[in-house]
Write a structure and sequence with these properties.
two-stranded antiparallel sheet, 124 residues, 4 helices, mainly alpha, 2 strands
């Protein structure tokens, strides 16, 4: 692949080569390499998109982003930067639950007993 045929990652702006027709090594790679230079950039985009679409909470997104490499964040587009900033502001919520003891009674036993007591036999 010549210099003019290099691709540019839609997330981080890095140039890379990917051509499943020209390069036999690229034939087995996923087709998302047409847009992203690495699995890391692809995953960052997936997390940001899921968060913005409401398919993932900010806390879930933050947990996933913390496992990814954000070192090229300065090269991300403004929408990605804004989305990541919103995600990173997320704080885990602590929910206090009171221990309530509930008494479970067997209702079926009482019902069966009543039916058995009231049943009449019509068998001769």
């Amino acid at each position: 692949m010549s210099k003019k045929e290099l691709r540019t990652c839609v997330l981080c702006g890095k140039t890379y080569s990917f051509c499943p027709v020209c390069n036999p090594e690229d034939r087995l790679k996923p087709t998302w390499y047409f847009c992203w230079c690495s699995d890391n950039c692809h995953e960052i985009d997936e997390v940001a998109s899921a968060f913005e679409d409401g398919r993932m909470t900010d806390i879930e997104a933050k947990e996933k982003l913390n496992k990814l490499d954000l070192s090229r964040k300065e090269y991300f587009g403004e929408s990605y930067k804004n989305s990541i900033a919103s995600i990173m502001k997320a704080k885990a919520q602590v929910i206090k639950k009171e221990n309530k003891k509930t008494e479970v009674k067997s209702v079926k036993k009482d019902i069966v007993t009543k039916v058995e007591n009231e049943a009449e036999s019509n068998v001769e």
